[in-house]
């Protein structure tokens, strides 16, 4: 596998593309703190691809970290590419202009490695579309020695069989160190004249976090998996997530890129902890991202100051799965406040869980943006919260919100989930009732009703969670639940409650793909070739197109979404960095026992 000469498309991009797209700032590159190297002088050239538009990808912390890590090595050049929006793609196809990187305007297909960060099943078609725009065959078995290696990381790697036919290597777990080890191996193998097959074989036996799907096969018995086999006995049958042990000193960008256009999150972002002490039974990240690790207060402050001076952003965001569980939060907030208040820089605290510590938090945070407080309640009743293992009491919830109102917060955003096991119509109605009480609670403080925005999502049973064996509720159930919520809002005349509902059909597609096996790859490719892309975007998502793709392979989308799994059967993700089955089963059985106890009390 030899390195190719990389074609630079700068002239074509400037003359035939940029003058005609609606938002050129998505494609021009050259931003402050961009890292650009001489491609000819680097041994390994990596195109880092994000399967969504620039504004989304540039707000993704993991993508920024990998960009920084690879470019710190003098023999690697890492450049960025994002999914072109509809108008841009039309121009590229009409002009026969291949997908290019932002830094050098270089053809992505000429790079040695094309890496994707995949966090959601509904980005799969965008990945195929970007490969096709780069003029790279989408199927791995159709590529030659001259085509780049396609490597995928991110949360989707832990349940990646649906896209296995398109990918050469999956990196499971945390990629900061793993990607460097893998690229160094690729560099060494290429210098030794190894073929692509030799290289993939070496990666498979060298790293427990590297899954090479072409070296494995499945046998099926109807819907179920009968066996999972490797092509040679030396290949492992189980893979382990890569883990950063020294999180305190884990690499972070010292000078993040400052975009020319407004992105989803324009702030200094500092990851303060990794993992979550909670065990919500629907949450894939809380079970897959282990162990829990923390950065010190001084390290967080140092990173925040360095990033602020390199960017000038006016907000510092503290990133984690559950910021309120950071053990030194009461020390961290005043220290950041002391540094940034004189600079008129605010502190942002997303991902707050309700607990006793959250009651104290608003008193500490005079520098925090007061526009709104976001809380993921998930279930309106304490009974359901016990079933999903989210032990929030109404008492603590109201105490936390009352403290927030006293501290100056005026708006509240709540997240609820519908479709939970053991849920009743009364539980669904209670979402409105609880939101109503939360809004009216502010009257105790300033005699005003709070504006409350409520987002309703539909439960998607995810791999590597205790709910992975459950069937998703059907479409009629979700439609009825939506009607119940809106009817209850009308009964209460609660105009100050604003409900936003996730797309039901999209959630069913997510469920069908999240727990699918390798045979789903045919459906995904068929849907993409029929026009599916940007499936996370309302203006692009086409449910009928997906239904037809399923039907082409004698599959029913809704039946796939509603499929329940037997605890004894082999799951399509069993081999992929899973938590221990006994541990998940205990949580699953505890939830079922709670359901039984509630239905048939002593």
Protein architecture, described:
- There is one protein chain.
- Helix content is 37%, strand content 14%.
- With 602 residues, the protein is α/β, with parallel strands linked by helices.
- The protein has 3 domains: 10-230, 3-Layer(aba) Sandwich (Rossmann fold); 267-369, Transcription Regulator spoIIAA (2-Layer Sandwich), CATH 3.30.750; 371-496 and 572-602, Transcription Regulator spoIIAA, CATH 3.30.750.200.
- The strands form 5 sheets. The chain has a 6-stranded mixed beta sheet, covered by helices on one side.
- Strand 3 (113-117), helix 5 (124-133) and strand 4 form a beta-alpha-beta unit.
- The protein starts with 9 loop residues before the first helix and ends with a helix.
- 46% of the residues are buried.
Can you lay out the helices and strands and say which pair or pack?
Blueprint: H1 10-16, E1 44-50, H2 54-57, H3 61-71, E2 76-82, H4 86-94, E3 113-117, H5 124-133, E4 149-153, E5 169-171, H6 175-191, H7 196-206, E6 210-211, E7 216-221, E8 224-230, E9 268-271, E10 273-274, H8 284-288, E11 293-294, H9 297-311, E12 315-319, H10 329-340, E13 346-348, H11 356-364, E14 373-378, H12 382-387, H13 394-406, E15 411-418, H14 425-441, H15 443-446, E16 451-458, H16 475-492, E17 497-501, H17 504-514, H18 520-529, H19 543-552, H20 557-561, H21 581-599
Parallel strand pairs: 1-2, 1-3, 3-4, 4-5, 9-12, 12-13, 14-15, 15-16, 16-17
Antiparallel strand pairs: 5-6, 7-8, 10-11
